[in-house]
Amino acid sequence: MSLLVKICGLSTPETLEASLAAGADMVGFVFFPPSPRHVGLGLARELGQAVRRRAVKVALTVDADDATLANIIDALEPQVLQLHGKESVARLRDIKQRFGLPVMKAIAVETAADLAVLPGYATAAERILFDARAPKDATRPGGLGRPFDWHLLEHLKLAVPFMVSGGLDAGNVAEALRVTGAGGVDVSSGVERAPGVKDIEKIRAFVAAARAAAGAAPSPLTASRA
Fold it and tell me: Could you confirm whether domain 4-224 is CATH 3.30.70.360?
């Protein structure tokens, strides 16, 4: 079994290099000013150039308009757009048509009812990312370091590949994979020592734990990185 490992919210050359050296398949950059992981276009250009062909670059946005997406794509040159807001199925299709990039749609999960949207999104997204639903008083989407009930994804049959995020770290990623059977894992706060501040040793430990749990070599995506 191959496994996709994504390190998200990178914002420094040092932690980006640590993620690449550890063998991350995907590296994510956040373009959302309320987030402590937000990167500006200048820094995104610098970090994106440092990736070269060693990993898939993912741009995370939240309900971004076309002009914002165009600027992000120009700076980072991502291979995947991760849509983490309330984008509709129609909006996903429009983004794909306009920009010609694969889309990964984040789905917030708290109860089984949250999975009702899957059939629609599976027709428009190349990949689904399951994340914990943000608390009601949160100022930004995402699990904010909290896991959801992974058993909600047991025996899930989905027409497209999916990844799991939300509260993952080196200590629980094996259980998340065992329960969900996900083809990929995505971590951000679980490899930080403070909000937005990545920890190199935690990055290494997470990638190693995920690979060991899946018995997986790096994903075949490696061969198609651009």
Answer: no
